Amino acid sequence: MTGRPARLVHTGNVVVDVVMYLPRLPEVGGDVLASGSRITAGGGLNVMASAARQGLPVAYAGMHGTGPFGDLAREQLAQAGIELVQPALPEVDTGFSVALIDPAGERTFATSVGAEARLGPAELARIDLSPGDVVYVSGYSLAYPSNGPALAAWLPTVAPEVTVVVDPGPLVAEIPGPVMASVSERADWWSCNEREARILTEHADPEAAAVSLAARTGRAGVVVRTGPQGAVLATDHRSVRVPAFPVTVVDTNGAGDAHVGAFVAALVSGLDPVQAVRRANAAAALAVTRRGPATAPTDVQVDELLAGRSSR
Predict the structure, then answer these.
(1) Does residue 292 carry a pLDDT above 80?
(2) Fewest C-beta in 10 Å: which of 14, 72, 128, 171?
(3) Where are the beta strands (DSSP E) in 113-268?
(4) Which residues of 6-29 are buried (b: 16+ CB within 10 A; e: fewer)?
């Protein structure tokens, strides 16, 4: 479509998060009373909400189901101003994830998959891409038996004028080799956390891991998120550490997603990669000060944090 502004096209998975705040994780066979809980759409919504709050148009090209969880997902996607590419899949609901949050803000997940794991070639054919668009690929999708092979076959057909961003996610070790190879070859940007980078490269040092990843994936570059230390950016076999913004952590759920969404929006806006990572670090810092998965800040809030830091 000529004249359409660049947008983020998310091929991952929106699920419903059942979030529970615990005084401690239960022992095997035990039980713990939660101090609070919430049920909200999460998963891929977190990345999309982050990008949208930074002013980037967003389309969800993943699958969604028919049932109460699918209804909740669509409602919250609409509230975030996100376009739906696919129709609802009948006879199967959207999946859900139980997130256990401990007092330090760390989270532990267990996930039950649903309609979001049924993306195939016919659904990918519905996606209408324009030069300047950014396609986001989730490792959760790559690990699914249907989504992974379909994306591996589709991504090489995506025009070079479209940027592909891949986040392998916690299931990185479950992604089949042929799928990983195809996706790695087409990825422009690769964004992951320290654990995922270590699994992929066997380098404990995130800077070494980022350089190693940049040598085999990320045609533009690689970002390794290092939590309270910020992130490492690797391009052309060189790396730079971009420091974090110290904050009081309340909930880390969705912090990586907030980072990726803000990073993509910053790149589309024309910032160079270092500036884009710095802006993403600020977005992630603000996200962890709030409870809930989709806690990414607005562009104005990120601007205020960056202005405050730069004036010191």
Answers:
(1) no
(2) 128
(3) 134-138, 163-167, 189-193, 221-225, 231-235, 238-242
(4) bbbbbbbbbbbbbbbbbeeeeeee
For residue 308, give both structure tokens.
């405050």
The two structure tokens encoding residue 109: 């997940």
Percentages helix, strand, coil for the chain (3-state, rounded to 5) are 40, 20, 40
pLDDT > 70 fraction of the chain, expressed in percent and rounded: 97
Q: What is the DSSP string of 253-302?
A: TTHHHHHHHHHHHHHHTT--HHHHHHHHHHHHHHHTTSSSS--PPPHHHH
Domain ranges of the chain: 8-14+42-93+116-310
- From edge to edge, which strands make up the β-sheet containing 58-60? 83-84, 58-60, 8-10, 134-138, 163-167, 189-193, 221-225, 231-235, 238-242
pLDDT at 299 over 90: yes
- DSSP 8-state code for residue 89: B
The residues near 165 (Cβ < 8 Å, ≥ 6 apart) are 134, 135, 136, 137, 187, 188, 189, 190, 191, 260, 264
Give 265-274 pLDDT, tens digit per residue: 999 999 999 9
257 and 284 in contact (C-beta within 8 Å)? no
Distance (Å, rounded) from C-alpha 122 to C-alpha 281?
37
For 264, phi then psi, to 5°, come to: -60, -45
CA angle 47, 190, 155 (to 5 degrees): 85
pTM assigned to the model: 0.91
Q: What is the pLDDT of residues 2-45, one digit of tens each?
A: 578 999 999 999 999 898 999 999 999 999 999 999 899 988 99
Domain 8-14+42-93+116-310 has CATH 3.90.1150.10: no
* Number of Cβ within a 10 Å radius of residue 307: 9
**Other residues' Cβ atoms within 10 Å of the Cβ of residue 185:** 13
